Amino acid sequence: MRRAGIVAALIAGTLLLGGCGGLSDTGEPLTVEQSEQLAQTRFQLSTAGELVVDATIGDPAATDHVTAALTVDTGDHLAWGTIRRGPAELAVEQRVLLHEDGYALESAGRWQSVSWSEGDLGLLLVVFSLATDRPENAQLLRQSDARYLGSEDGLDVYRLPSPDGAGGTTRLWLDGGLLARFDDGGDALVFTVDREATPEPVPSELSELVGTDD
């Protein structure tokens, strides 16, 4: 799938590998129970409706640092909210709309569309790979390079299978089967789910951007 290829390339291009507490670097093959939990979690996300996630890209002190507060429709692969660019104390905020083919930013009351391949927010596309629109085969997951990395802060941590079997880096952090965090294997790209937050209403501009009349 074109989207999956873009996501893999973007993550590979910015990956900052690093250890994380007591988690295993290599992990263990999934048990039957673990493979079923992982498969069920990803499928349930596709029917979860809207989630509120916070995203962080890069070093907080760097000029290319980005944070985002997004409402994500995991089923329709749409998202909307705000981004902040730059070091935390100097960050500039903008409204953003995201869909599978690109995103749009608001400036002075006008929206500018950008493709994922041309813009500098490409890593946010990863948010649309959180869910699967059909149940995964738990047995095939056990045969893949997906791994259980251990637990930290009360969360079970899994490394997702890679498309080519060469070893993935993407990790899901689960709280009793519910997604709590999603990252690239380090701190270069981190999504956290805020289950206490109220999703924002869908902006009218989003339906116009993707060509629907919902």
Protein described:
19% of the residues lie in helices and 34% in strands. The protein is an alpha+beta fold. The protein has a single domain, classed as outer membrane lipoprotein receptor (LolB), chain A. A 12-stranded antiparallel sheet has the order 1-8-9-10-11-12-2-3-4-5-6-7. Strand 5 and strand 6 form a beta hairpin. It is globular. About 8% of the residues have low confidence.
The CATH class designation is Mainly Beta
* SSE order: HEHEEEEEEHEEEEEH
What is the CATH architecture assignment? Clam
Number of helices, where a helix is a run of at least 4 consecutive DSSP H or I residues: 4
Whole-angstrom Rg: 17 Å
Task: Report the uncertain regions.
Answer: 4-20
Strand segment count: 12
Distance between the termini: 26 Å
What general form does the structure show?
Answer: globular
Q: Biggest sheet, open or closed, and with what strands and sense?
A: 12 strands, antiparallel
Relative strand content: 25-35%
Query: Strands of the largest sheet, in order across it?
Result: 1-8-9-10-11-12-2-3-4-5-6-7
Task: Please sum up the structure shown.
This protein has four helices and twelve strands.
Which features characterize this protein?
214 residues; outer membrane lipoprotein receptor (LolB), chain A; 4 helices; globular
